[in-house]
Amino acid sequence: MSLDDIADAPASGVRFAAARAELGEASLVVVSEAGERRELAWADLAAALARDLTGAPFAPGTTMVDLLPRQGAPVRLLTSTRLQIPGTAPPGTPLDDLRRALALCRAMQPDLQLEDATADFVYRREALPPWTAADLASYDRRYGAG
Fold it and tell me: N or C: which end of the chain has fewer CB within 10 A?
Protein backbone atom coordinates (compact mmCIF):
# COMPACT_ATOMS: atom_id res chain seq x y z
CA MET A 1 0.00 0.00 0.00
CA SER A 2 1.41 3.40 -0.99
CA LEU A 3 1.09 6.66 0.92
CA ASP A 4 -1.54 7.71 -1.64
CA ASP A 5 -3.56 4.58 -0.83
CA ILE A 6 -3.33 5.29 2.89
CA ALA A 7 -4.46 8.90 2.47
CA ASP A 8 -7.44 7.82 0.38
CA ALA A 9 -8.38 4.83 2.53
CA PRO A 10 -11.47 5.07 4.72
CA ALA A 11 -10.88 5.42 8.42
CA SER A 12 -11.85 1.78 8.92
CA GLY A 13 -11.06 0.50 12.34
CA VAL A 14 -11.72 3.82 14.09
CA ARG A 15 -14.72 3.34 16.35
CA PHE A 16 -17.69 5.67 15.92
CA ALA A 17 -16.26 7.13 12.68
CA ALA A 18 -18.71 8.90 10.41
CA ALA A 19 -18.25 8.39 6.69
CA ARG A 20 -20.65 11.27 5.96
CA ALA A 21 -22.19 14.01 8.05
CA GLU A 22 -24.76 16.66 7.26
CA LEU A 23 -25.08 19.60 9.61
CA GLY A 24 -28.57 20.96 9.07
CA GLU A 25 -30.78 23.59 10.64
CA ALA A 26 -32.49 21.22 13.08
CA SER A 27 -30.02 18.39 13.53
CA LEU A 28 -26.83 16.58 12.74
CA VAL A 29 -27.22 13.48 10.57
CA VAL A 30 -24.32 11.05 10.25
CA VAL A 31 -23.83 7.81 8.35
CA SER A 32 -21.22 5.42 9.72
CA GLU A 33 -18.75 3.51 7.57
CA ALA A 34 -21.07 0.50 8.04
CA GLY A 35 -23.97 2.49 6.56
CA GLU A 36 -25.82 3.06 9.85
CA ARG A 37 -27.70 6.38 10.00
CA ARG A 38 -27.90 8.41 13.20
CA GLU A 39 -29.62 11.74 13.80
CA LEU A 40 -29.03 14.02 16.76
CA ALA A 41 -30.91 17.21 17.53
CA TRP A 42 -28.58 20.09 18.31
CA ALA A 43 -29.95 20.25 21.85
CA ASP A 44 -28.75 16.65 22.38
CA LEU A 45 -25.08 17.64 22.06
CA ALA A 46 -23.24 18.36 25.30
CA ALA A 47 -19.54 18.68 24.45
CA ALA A 48 -16.86 18.34 21.80
CA LEU A 49 -13.26 17.17 21.83
CA ALA A 50 -10.71 17.33 18.99
CA ARG A 51 -7.33 15.60 18.72
CA ASP A 52 -4.71 14.78 16.09
CA LEU A 53 -4.33 11.01 15.69
CA THR A 54 -0.72 10.02 15.08
CA GLY A 55 1.16 6.86 14.25
CA ALA A 56 -0.10 3.51 13.02
CA PRO A 57 -2.82 2.65 12.17
CA PHE A 58 -3.90 6.21 11.39
CA ALA A 59 -3.35 7.82 8.01
CA PRO A 60 -0.96 10.78 8.14
CA GLY A 61 -2.80 14.00 8.92
CA THR A 62 -5.79 12.35 10.61
CA THR A 63 -7.68 14.61 12.98
CA MET A 64 -10.79 13.60 14.91
CA VAL A 65 -13.61 15.63 16.34
CA ASP A 66 -15.85 13.87 18.83
CA LEU A 67 -19.29 15.39 19.25
CA LEU A 68 -20.50 14.08 22.57
CA PRO A 69 -24.24 13.70 23.05
CA ARG A 70 -25.83 13.88 26.47
CA GLN A 71 -26.32 10.10 26.25
CA GLY A 72 -24.70 7.42 24.16
CA ALA A 73 -21.61 7.07 22.04
CA PRO A 74 -19.89 10.00 20.36
CA VAL A 75 -20.28 11.09 16.77
CA ARG A 76 -16.71 10.99 15.47
CA LEU A 77 -15.83 13.21 12.54
CA LEU A 78 -12.47 12.63 10.90
CA THR A 79 -10.52 14.49 8.27
CA SER A 80 -11.79 11.77 5.90
CA THR A 81 -15.47 12.37 6.79
CA ARG A 82 -17.45 13.93 3.93
CA LEU A 83 -19.06 16.96 5.50
CA GLN A 84 -22.13 18.76 4.17
CA ILE A 85 -22.50 22.17 5.76
CA PRO A 86 -25.25 24.11 3.99
CA GLY A 87 -24.83 27.83 3.59
CA THR A 88 -21.06 27.90 4.07
CA ALA A 89 -18.15 28.55 1.77
CA PRO A 90 -17.00 25.78 -0.55
CA PRO A 91 -15.04 23.02 1.15
CA GLY A 92 -11.57 24.01 2.26
CA THR A 93 -8.86 21.88 3.75
CA PRO A 94 -10.04 18.98 5.89
CA LEU A 95 -8.89 20.83 9.03
CA ASP A 96 -10.75 23.97 8.00
CA ASP A 97 -13.87 21.90 7.38
CA LEU A 98 -13.63 20.36 10.86
CA ARG A 99 -13.18 23.83 12.36
CA ARG A 100 -16.21 25.07 10.40
CA ALA A 101 -18.26 22.08 11.59
CA LEU A 102 -17.29 22.72 15.23
CA ALA A 103 -18.10 26.42 14.93
CA LEU A 104 -21.51 25.59 13.46
CA CYS A 105 -22.18 23.04 16.22
CA ARG A 106 -21.40 25.72 18.79
CA ALA A 107 -23.65 28.23 16.99
CA MET A 108 -26.53 25.74 16.85
CA GLN A 109 -25.98 24.57 20.44
CA PRO A 110 -24.59 27.54 22.43
CA ASP A 111 -24.25 25.37 25.56
CA LEU A 112 -21.88 22.98 23.76
CA GLN A 113 -18.79 22.64 25.96
CA LEU A 114 -15.41 22.81 24.23
CA GLU A 115 -12.37 21.81 26.24
CA ASP A 116 -9.51 24.31 26.02
CA ALA A 117 -7.40 22.68 23.27
CA THR A 118 -10.50 22.18 21.10
CA ALA A 119 -11.59 25.80 21.55
CA ASP A 120 -8.07 26.96 20.63
CA PHE A 121 -8.18 24.73 17.52
CA VAL A 122 -11.46 26.29 16.40
CA TYR A 123 -11.05 29.93 17.31
CA ARG A 124 -7.27 30.48 17.35
CA ARG A 125 -6.32 27.90 14.68
CA GLU A 126 -3.87 26.26 17.08
CA ALA A 127 -2.48 22.75 16.72
CA LEU A 128 -4.19 19.96 18.62
CA PRO A 129 -2.58 17.62 21.14
CA PRO A 130 -1.56 14.33 19.48
CA TRP A 131 -3.11 11.01 20.45
CA THR A 132 -1.76 7.57 19.61
CA ALA A 133 -3.91 4.50 19.03
CA ALA A 134 -3.33 3.61 22.71
CA ASP A 135 -4.55 7.06 23.82
CA LEU A 136 -7.69 6.71 21.70
CA ALA A 137 -8.35 3.17 22.98
CA SER A 138 -8.02 4.38 26.57
CA TYR A 139 -10.43 7.26 25.90
CA ASP A 140 -12.88 4.95 24.11
CA ARG A 141 -13.11 2.56 27.08
CA ARG A 142 -15.72 4.86 28.60
CA TYR A 143 -18.05 3.74 25.79
CA GLY A 144 -17.70 0.02 26.46
CA ALA A 145 -16.04 -2.79 24.56
CA GLY A 146 -15.45 -2.28 20.87
Answer: N
